[in-house]
Design brief:
This protein is of the alpha/beta class and 571 residues long. The protein is 41% helix and 20% strand. Helix 7 links the parallel strand 4 and strand 5.
Length: 571
């Protein structure tokens, strides 16, 4: 077992298919094997993966009820009806909202938007919002990234004389709402690339369908929406394969042109100097856009993306940055308190970590729960208690549904929702004790010891002599990385640790030099500082790592970015 208690799993190698891919695409056999590891087994499939062209996108009308949805919206244009786009407060929902608002404005329609407050209103449509839109004389509501489960709310809208077109990407519930049309790719019965679209991807397909139905051939206007699609798709952690890969590939080109004022100023306040990729979205842009909805209201994030005024967009970007700094501070305080409680209560001994604290901000505990789940490799439920009401966020581990776990206590919740990897709820504080008991009892029965050991997937075993700049550059064709297309992980066995030193603030990181007898390689281990006292020079280790190029001093040199390390001979 490794020092980080991970079980290494080397992908099964396929020399014959390696040769076929290598010959056809003029790539190295090592690169070919990584494609195979991603489940890409056919030449045509590999071509689409390596060259994500817009022409590979499937027709929007292949999604059920798209034709009816587009027709109803264009009827609203003919009638001069008021239309409201109803979105969600995360990046996927905000980008989908902005995309559809811009599309309907382009079509010359009378359009507004509504994004609910995360804590006062919660996810999806709600009665107060429906009545407010009715009072504003809205005739048609078009949802994005929500709505497929809002049976009662859409029924209310209908009774008030409004019609609703739902666009969503969440799983189909047993009972569908009485909407005019429901556009959700999960309604496609057979396997289809659109089934994994984010909410913003579905919104783009609707925009495309509207252009086609209206006879518009302005391809540029549609392509100019793809920066929004890339943002929302990456932030929503959907698989970055198939159509999502095409959206992100095309959208990143637009993001890097910085045509949208809000994006340009957000990049500036985030101090991003490198080219925008999925990493820069996940750690630079998305957190700032999300911060508005977590601590205040997501409408400011939407206004930033809609803004055409340089001064206004600069001001909003600066404000989002300030909110994000505040969010980071709150998160840091909660994280410190949570890990102290974990040690105090010996929570790592339980199969599920359940902790509650006073005034833990509900907009931040989900982020902290993700960190705890990652570090402790346990399902985690964190609950913030304030004014007699508790709000909880749950995060899971690979292969275990935290949503199914919480279903064991569904009768205790005031409200509850989520999916396999993440869920949220609110509950009366008096019921927290019973909730904890039920969840821990259920976890004891359902969570095997095997599931509690993280598995590290390894793409290839390499000798240091096989690591060269040309191969690392070749790996760039795999980007963008994300769900379904992880950063490649490599391993080398029985390498000797010849040098080791702490670097960074408080010695949090380690710089290594390893030798395999023929060649020495430098490596950086971010967060590896805790191992400084247990690793020995001149000892033999197996190492797992990502590959990158270090261009320090104007020279490009391969560098290993450490993922894990274990003593040679262990497994």
């Amino acid at each position: 077992m490794s020092y980080f208690n991970k079980k290494w799993q080397l992908a099964k190698q396929d020399p014959e298919r390696q040769k076929s891919f290598s010959s056809h695409f003029k790539v190295s056999p090592m690169f070919a094997q990584i494609l195979l590891n991603r489940g890409i087994t056919g030449i045509e499939e590999a071509e689409k993966f390596l060259s994500p062209k817009l022409s590979y996108l499937r027709d929007p009308f292949e999604i059920p009820h798209m034709k009816e949805a587009a027709a109803r919206i264009l009827t609203a244009r003919e009638r001069g009806e008021k239309v409201a786009v109803y979105g969600d407060y995360d990046v996927d929902g905000v980008t989908a909202t902005v995309l559809l608002v811009e599309t309907l404005k382009y079509l010359g329609m009378d359009v507004s938007y509504y994004i609910p407050h995360r804590y006062d209103e919660g996810y999806g449509l709600n009665e107060t919002a429906i009545r407010k839109l009715s009072a504003e004389k809205v005739n048609l509501i078009v949802t994005v990234d929500c709505g497929v489960s809002n049976v009662a709310e859409i029924g209310l809208a209908k009774s008030l004389g409004m019609e609703v077109v739902v666009t969503d990407h969440h799983n189909i519930p047993p009972t569908l709402p009485p909407a005019f049309a429901i556009v959700d790719p999960k309604l496609i019965k057979e396997p289809h690339p659109s089934k994994t679209l984010a909410g913003v991807g579905v919104a783009f397909k609707l925009a495309w369908a509207l252009f086609k139905s209206a006879g518009l051939k302005d391809k540029e206007a549609l392509v100019n929406l793809m920066d929004l699609v890339a943002l929302g798709t990456v932030a929503d952690v959907v698989p970055l394969t198939g159509e999502n890969r095409i959206f992100v590939y095309q959208g990143l080109q637009l993001l890097n042109q910085k045509k949208r004022l809000g994006i340009k100023h957000l990049i500036e306040v985030a101090k991003i100097s490198k080219s925008i990729g999925s990493h820069q979205i996940n750690f630079g842009l998305a957190p700032r856009l999300n911060a508005a909805g977590r601590l205040e209201h997501a409408s400011s994030a939407a206004e930033l993306l809609l803004s055409k005024d340089p001064f206004e967009s600069q001001q909003i970007a600066a404000e989002l940055n300030r909110i994000n700094i505040r969010r980071q501070g709150i998160g840091s305080d909660i994280r410190e308190e949570v890990f102290a409680l974990i040690e105090q209560e010996r929570s790592r001994e339980n199969k599920v970590i359940f902790l509650a604290g006073k005034q833990w901000h509900p907009g931040v505990i989900g982020i902290v729960a993700s960190r705890v789940a990652e570090e402790c490799y346990r399902p985690v439920v964190l609950v913030g208690v304030e004014n007699g009401v508790a709000r909880g966020s749950a995060r899971s581990i690979e292969g275990f549904s935290v949503f199914a776990l919480l279903k064991h206590a569904e009768d205790l919740f005031l409200d509850f929702g989520g999916h396999e990897g993440a869920a949220g709820f609110s509950i009366e504080t008096s019921k927290l004790g019973e909730l904890k008991e039920r969840l821990q009892a259920a976890a004891e029965k359902q969570l095997s010891a095997e599931l509690l050991v993280p598995v590290l997937g390894v793409d290839l075993e390499l000798h240091f002599t096989e690591i060269a700049s040309v191969f690392i550059k070749e790996l760039g064709r795999l980007e963008s990385y994300g769900e379904g297309n992880p950063v490649p992980v490599f391993m080398s066995r029985e390498v000797i640790l010849t040098d080791l030193r702490k670097v960074g603030a408080k010695g949090m990181h380690l710089k290594f030099v390893f030798s395999d007898g023929e060649k020495s390689m430098e490596a950086i281990g971010f967060g590896f500082g805790i191992l400084a006292e247990v690793l020995d020079l001149d000892k033999t280790y197996d190492i797992a790592y990502n590959l990158s190029l270090n261009d320090y001093g104007g020279y490009e040199n391969p560098q290993l970015s450490m993922v894990d390390i274990r003593e040679s001979g262990s497994n």
